[in-house]
Amino acid sequence: xxxxxxxxxxxxxxxxxxxxxxxxxxxxxxxxxxxxxxxxxxxxxxxxxxxxxxxxxxxxxxxxxx
Length: 66
Fold this sequence. Notes:
Layout: H1 3-8, E1 19-21, E2 26-29, E3 34-39, E4 42-43, E5 51-52
Antiparallel strand pairs: 1-2, 2-3, 3-4, 3-5
């Protein structure tokens, strides 16, 4: 992922900065606890496509409520 592009991308919810997780090919928003996938070198910044990371640290299942 191009570092210049990473500097421009923000979370679509809170507009905060994102962290690049190279091994997982995801952009992480620590504030909203979401992980946005990078597919074929393109960041998918759709909330519907984001993975909830809230339960990841505790081993809990992610909240699937709408």
